Amino acid sequence: MEINIRKDKVQQSEFEQKLQQSIDAKPTQTEAETTIPVVEEKVNIDVQTVETGKVRVSKQVHEEDVTVDVPFVYEDVDVQRVAKNLSVEKPPEVRYEGDTMIIPVIKEEVVIQKRLVLVEELHITKRRVEEHHPQQVILKKEEIKIDRTENNNTL
C-alpha cells in the first residue's frame, strides 16, 4: 500500500510557510548584505470544562433503641453504736481504725464529783456501692449515599 501526498495540497503551519519563503527568496548578486528572516512559533493553549458526569449525595439518619448499662456510684454510711460507759478525765479525740472513723460521745454526770463518762462510740464505715440501672436511650447514626451518573460525551 502506498500513500501519495502532493506537497501543494498539504496545509503548512505559519512557521513552515515563512521558512519556505526564506528558502525560495533568491538573493541578488548586487546586494552586499544577505537578509535572513528569523521565525518563531508560538502556541496558544485553551482549557475547556467538560461535564463528565453527575454526583448526587444524600444522607439518611437511622435511629436505634439500645439498652445502656449506666453505673451510679455513691457512698453509703454504716453507723454502729458501741456502748462504753467509761469514766474519762478528758474527752477522747476522733480516731480512725482502717476505713472506720470512731467519734466518742460523752456526757457530764452530776455526782459529788463531776467526771466525764464515755457513754458510747460511733463507728462509721464508708463503703463504695455501685449499682447498675439499665436506661433506654436513642442512638442516631448517619449514612451517606453517593450516586454517580457518567456522561458519555467526553472528548
From TrEMBL:
Residues 36-146 form the DUF2382 domain. Signal peptide: none annotated. InterPro entries: DUF2382 (IPR019060), Stress_Response_Assoc (IPR052967). PANTHER family: STRESS RESPONSE PROTEIN YSNF (PTHR38463). This is YsnF/AvaK domain-containing protein. It comes from Pontibacter cellulosilyticus.
